[in-house]
Every structure is written in C-alpha cells, then in structure tokens.
Design a protein that fits this description.
This protein is α/β, with parallel strands linked by helices and about 240 residues long. The protein has two domains: about 40 residues, no CATH class; about 190 residues, Rossmann fold, CATH 3.40.50. The protein has nine helices and six strands. Strands 1-6-5-2 form a four-stranded parallel sheet. A two-stranded antiparallel sheet has the order 3-4. β5, α9 and β6 form a beta-alpha-beta unit. The N and C termini lie far apart (about 50 Å). The protein binds zinc ion.
C-alpha cells in the first residue's frame, strides 16, 4: 500500500469528521464523486441533444437570430434535482456546483465535436451590482470549467451588461424581449470579429436574455454564435 501524503491524510480526516454529502440524497460522497453521488447523477434527465439538429433548444431560438448550433445538458423541471443545484449555485454561495456542471457539459460537447470549429466561450454577463451582491457570476463559473474541458479560451471582457433589468419571471415572451433589448454592450470588438463564439447560460427559459446577447455579438462583423445551457426549462 503506498504511503499517504500529508494532504491526503488531512483530507481523509476532514472527510471522517465533515463528510461531503451528495446534493441529491445527502449520503457521504465517495472518492471520485463530486456534488452528486453516482446514482443521483444517473437521475438527472440529460437531453443528449448535442449532436441532434433541430432539438428543443434550437427550436426555441429558431427564426429569432442566426446560430450554428444550440443545446442544453438536461431538462430543468420544477422541484427537480437540477433546480436544486442551480438554486444552490445562484443563491447559496456554492460556486463549486457551477464548476461541476460546466465540466459535465464541456466534456459532452468536446465528445460531440463542438470544439473543432469554436473559437471562444463567453458567458451571459450579470449586471455588476448583482455580481457584487452574489460574489460571482454563475454563468462565468460554468463557462470557465466548460471551456477548460473543451480546451478553449474564455472571453469575459467582450460582453457587458450595461442596464439592470427587471425580474423576468412575471413577463410574457414579448415583454421579456423588450425588457432585455439594449441591456448588453460589446467592447473590444476587434477581439471577437470573425470568431465563432459559444455563448453560455445556466437555464434556458424563453431565451430572451440569450437572444439579446446574441444580437449584440452578431453586430460585430463575421461573428458566429452557438449556444449551450445547463438546463432547458419545461413546466
Ligand atoms: Zn446521491
């Protein structure tokens, strides 16, 4: 048996007294598991959409703006395990959940061949004041690990949220689009001209936010857009 390093010993003791629990079933995670245990992982309803054109994610954007491809990792339903994970990521200071989710999706997109013609990954930005309250932008956390899994660079300084928008939850699709229009601005346009950008968000609902981001980016000459989200909301 190999000798344990001091770090491994410390980790072992920490796990003994403060075991890391599965976010799904609250059982202690074993070696190699993060966030969810293997059996809870298998419960997440993944879409397997990444190689399927005209999938439900693509249909939500169809006819609204040109894109190369679009996909989502899993179905996002009320009171689901995925809703719990995204809620913890956004409101309970759990950035490691975003890192884990981004890695899952990034590995799948890599396997589906998305990296070969994509130049950079850009997250949907939060307004600076909201980011200051939350401490981080959940989409940036997802985008960072997703980009690492796809061996692509991230571009965090090209797309900016310049206007704080009202909550979208009580709005119709048209009201959401109006609410979002002009909320984003592209800076350093030379850095993205002619690039194929993979735009990342946590959960796709009507797509008004992603549409506003895409329209801002598409105003730069030669830009092409693809989209990937962790969840696709269904009621
Ligand atoms: Zn579990």
């Amino acid at each position: 048996m190999p000798l344990l390093s001091l770090h491994q010993l410390r980790q072992g003791f920490a796990h003994m007294f403060f075991p890391v629990l599965c976010e799904g079933c609250r059982r202690p995670l074993i070696d190699g598991e993060q966030v969810l245990c293997l059996s809870c992982c298998l419960e997440v309803p993944e879409t397997s959409y990444h190689s399927r054109h005209d999938n439900d994610t693509e249909q939500r954007f169809s006819g609204r703006f040109p894109f190369v491809r679009a996909t989502s990792w899993a179905w996002f339903t009320p009171d689901s395990l995925l809703q719990h994970l995204v809620h913890a990521l956004k409101y309970h200071n759990r950035p490691e959940i975003g890192t884990w989710l981004g890695t899952r999706l990034g590995e799948q997109l890599m396997a589906a061949g998305w990296a070969h013609d994509t130049h950079m990954v850009i997250p949907v930005p939060l307004h600076p004041s909201r980011q200051a309250t939350r401490g981080y932008n959940q989409s940036s956390i997802i985008a960072a690990s997703l980009a690492a899994a796809m061996q692509l660079p991230t571009g965090n300084n090209h797309l900016h949220r310049i206007r704080k928008t009202d909550s979208q939850t009580q709005k119709t699709r048209t009201e959401r689009a109006e609410n979002m229009a002009g909320a984003f601005e592209v800076r350093d346009t030379a850095g993205i001209a002619g690039r194929h950008i993979l735009l990342i968000d946590d959960v796709l609902t009507t797509g008004a936010t992603l549409e506003a981001c895409a329209l801002a980016l598409l105003a730069v000459p030669g830009v092409k857009i693809s989209i990937a989200t962790i969840g696709i909301a269904v009621s």
